[in-house]
Task: structure prediction
Amino acid sequence: MILFWIVAIISVASALTVVLHRNPVYSALALVVALFQVAVVFVVMQAHLIALLQVIVYAGAIVVLFLFVIMLLSLEPDVPRPGRYGMRAGAITLAAFLGIELAAAALASQPSPDTLLPPDYGSTKQVAERLFTTHLLPFELTSVLLLAAVIGAVVLARRRA
Amino acid sequence: MDVIIVVAKALVALVICLQVTVLLLWVERKGSALIQDRVGANRANLFGGLLPFNLGIVNTFIADPVKLFHKEDIVPAEADQFLHWLAPWLAVFPLFLTFAVIPFGDVLVLGGREINLQAVELGGGLLFVLAMVSLGVYGVIVGGWASNSRYALLGGVRGSAQMVSYEVGMGLALVSVALTYGTLDLQTINREQGALMWGFLPAWGVFYQPIAFVLFFIAGMAESKRAPFDLPEAESELVAGFQTEYSGSKMSMFMMADFIEVAIVAALVTTLFFGGWQIPYLQRDGFHFPGGFGFAVPSLAVTVLQIVSFLVKLFVFCWFQILIRWSLPRLRYDQLMSLGWKRLLPVALANVVVTAVLVLALEGWTT
Result:
């Protein structure tokens, strides 16, 4: 429980840094910290496989590509711009809605940490079994989606060259 | 008692990692000299030449680190101070953790309790290694960016692209190994390799998965950013790439990260493909040669032999990497990318498919 609070505080702080920091490189690095903390939460929940995949895929590959793009474009630190109040108000309203919704969902589910987990919860075998039986259709749809993205990227790159 | 055992095992893993690193520093200097027909590091003539042999090894063990850590630490004025400081830590820290899951022996029987010779017993050890190696890229990319120098930035960008590309092939090579042994636990993979094929051939990964071994070794060398894959630091083009603006102890941390990566690749090749701590025909109670004869060996001696076997294999593969580094010229950037994506990746994918079909067929056949 103590670990959970430490992780929670660090992840919220780093998530805020992602949004609020003026320098995109710092934002991306804070995103790595936030993703890492989520991986720690997975470890606390005994889901070791998901935690490791989280680190490999998100922290190890995706944010590296973010950084790659940021560096290639050599983005300058943001300067706060005046105006655009309508957009800001809209963003704050949407964020508030999302926050209320998440809070409601969390309150409604009332998780109790000790009773939920079956003995081999989160093991590689169990995750794989679920993935290839109960959740086969979403899994396959996701892979089709990714394939479409890859083909799209190749087509765009070819057209440019 | 359990706490002491855990701390001791963690210390052993750390000591192996550090000592191999320091030793590699010397082996690389002398080895490269041997390959290039030079004398190499020879300025350690202690006791005024009274000794018949050269103490270059002492020089590299003690004098070199002391020298490096006392050099002035220069930070460019325009650099991002915080990230410039952070980058070497990002490069070294995840790599230290990798050694925690590598088994360096079977079990040590001590006072009636069996101690598993692996610092952390993690079910997903293979994935843990991949995760930590993939985090190592941040040292390169952050160091390159924070230095605020064109050479460093180019090195950082190259490094990130290279490491992400080769991680794919590396991961797929490991998938076929995991399929073969049916587990992600490195210690279990190691124990499985103690079996015999056709009664005489040790069931090492290299005999089951020769293609995966070659793929993994190439991808691993690319991950460690050393020649022929040293484009992130290509000294003839980029001065020293991502570490151009680093000096003193920070530079030596990057150097250490390089050597730890060499050691990690060697340790993984040993563990996954060459039986790790296994010695052919040596079981827990002694040697059992094919043909029915053999002799007993005391349990403690077996453990010592296993650790020695692991270390010997580790050094052989470290040396092999040094040999390759000093023999091959650097790849061009487009060659690097086409090797990674157009050669390694399709072969690795085909290997996974063939392995999966074979595993399924053999399982169906036996059950």
User: Anything to note?
Assistant: Chain A is about 80% helix and 0% strand. The longest helix of chain A spans residues 48-73. The mean pLDDT of chain A is 79. Residues 12 and 82 of chain A are 27 Å apart (CA to CA).
